[in-house]
Amino acid sequence: MTEVQNVTANQHPGTTSREELISANEVILAMVKAAKGLRMYLPNNPVLIGFLEDLHAKMGEHVGSFGDFRLAVEQFALRYKGCDVYENQDPRESIALRLHSDGIRVLTFTQGLEQRELSGFLGIVGFAGPIHQDDDVVTQLWERNLPHISCLLAEDLAGDQEEDQAATAPQQNAISHVYAALAGQLHPPAPPMAKHLLMLTGEEAAWLRKAKQAEGHRNHLDDVVNIVCAVLAGARDAVIFRDFVEIMGKLTANMFLAGEFGHALRLVRFQHKLLNLISLTPDQQQQVKKSLAGVLSERTTQVLQETLDGGDSISHEELKELLQIFGLPSLRAICELLGRVEKLKMRKVIIEVLVELGRNNPEVFSPFLADPRWYLVRNVVLILSMLDTPIALEMIVGLISHKELRIRREVLSFLERSSDPKAKTYILKFLRDDSSVLRIKALQILTRERHPSALKLALSVSAGDDFKARDMAEKKAVFEAIGELGSQEMVPLFREMLLKKQWFKRGIDKDAAICAVAGLMKMNNAAAKQLLEEARGQRSLEIRGIIEQAILANAATVNGRAQA
């Protein structure tokens, strides 16, 4: 079977040039490829788009060089100026048979032809969709509004033949006219389909164009979602309901994977509304809950994270609504999402939702406190601190000795903020932490809270064997706590440190002076001020400079607080 006929030297009759017939042959070849492409590919497929662009280009070149592209339509063949350019005997694929069966005998493509016209034409005659016996090709071509594609029907040509006969046989012409007149009185002929275009008003033509544009802009995903929702909403049969719940669950997950978040959210909302229908049986409610719980899989969670970090296609309100609908059954997936999302504002939304989900049952977060990702554990600690319940406190204190500094720091912050009186007692454990930063902060918290054991612990730390090896910031913090908590009874200790040489052994009396001055500045009473003045008069210039620098720093701090 041959579709496109090759042009040979003896095929082109008359004055038609070989170049013109070769061009016509190339147009037909491109037309066949595009017709097959419409049957094989989706409209947005690059291969199909390439076929249509190639056809449009070749047709434009031919019409521009040789005039209108006119084809004579036979039962299984198409002829261009007497030369066969297409033949296909298969009734299931023959474009010629499709045209010929509906009475089309001449097909013409004119200057100004658009690519969408070619696509529409092939969509009708190229077997791109299901073909029914009652399909009318002529009517469809007319309805598609293809101004640069026209056709002549068998009845149109019959009139032309009568005129030719009249020119060569006057008598036969007269007889034909008589019969034509009589036939017209008995059976008035229907006007040719092509002439109907002239009967459209401007308003009707404008309406057709708008309708066509609206059809082209329709989102087929909306149609799919509408159909599934409509079927599920009206399903009364238990089997149909179960099957379509499964379909909706898979469709929702696929919408996430395809990046169609708007459609995914719409499907999730619909399932959430289903759960609130009193007409659902307990078994049907369980089916919907299972469908929702299965949406946030490993793959969909990854895609959702990429969407959240990659742009602003999902608003904070939409994300919050989505996670609230998924709820506790999807807690693991939501926590996993929290561990992956990098955008701070989105993490805050996830944390806010998790706080709501765990408000009545903080134990649901226990498995995540052992997660190897420190940042996820830290965020869970933050969630528990926002819950601020005795159960949350018990869950967190087990992390005081966690190997990750950033987790221990979050735990200490939680204990600092907690309203539970037991929380401050646990802060004492941080005085033995490996990090000097956390030891200092813990001591400052205990001092500010006036913990009963704070002074005793600070004195114990200052007398420890390892205290001399600690950095100056921590030493100062210890003696500031001693000065603030011990008040006047600590003056003798500070006097010895300031006025007695080598309190820290030889060569480190400067450290002792710095620590003593820090403690006296925190005492801020008459005895402390008197001792500082005495030390300024007796010590070296270096020690005097330390005292004066501490006084100036304290004054600056006080002024700063007053201005604030």
In short:
This protein has 564 residues and is mainly alpha-helical.
Kindly describe this structure.
The protein is mostly helical. Among the domains are: 18-176 and 191-198, no CATH class; 452-564. The protein contains 27 helices and five strands. The protein has helices at residues 18-40, 46-66, 95-101, 115-125, 137-143, 154-168, 170-186, 202-217, 220-234, 238-257, 261-275, 282-293, 298-310, 316-326, 331-340, 344-357, 374-387, 390-396, 405-417, 421-427, 436-448, 454-462, 472-486, 491-499, 509-523, 526-538, 541-563, and strands spanning 69-73, 77-80, 83-87, 104-109, 149-153. Strands 3-2-1-4-5 form a five-stranded antiparallel β-sheet. Helix 9 (220-234) runs parallel beside helix 11 and helix 11 (261-275) packs antiparallel against helix 12. The model is unreliable at 178-198 and 502-508 (pLDDT under 50).
In total, the number of strands is 5
Structural class: mainly alpha
Strand content: under 5%
Our measurement of the CA-to-CA distance between the termini, rounded to an integer number of angstroms, reads 93 Å
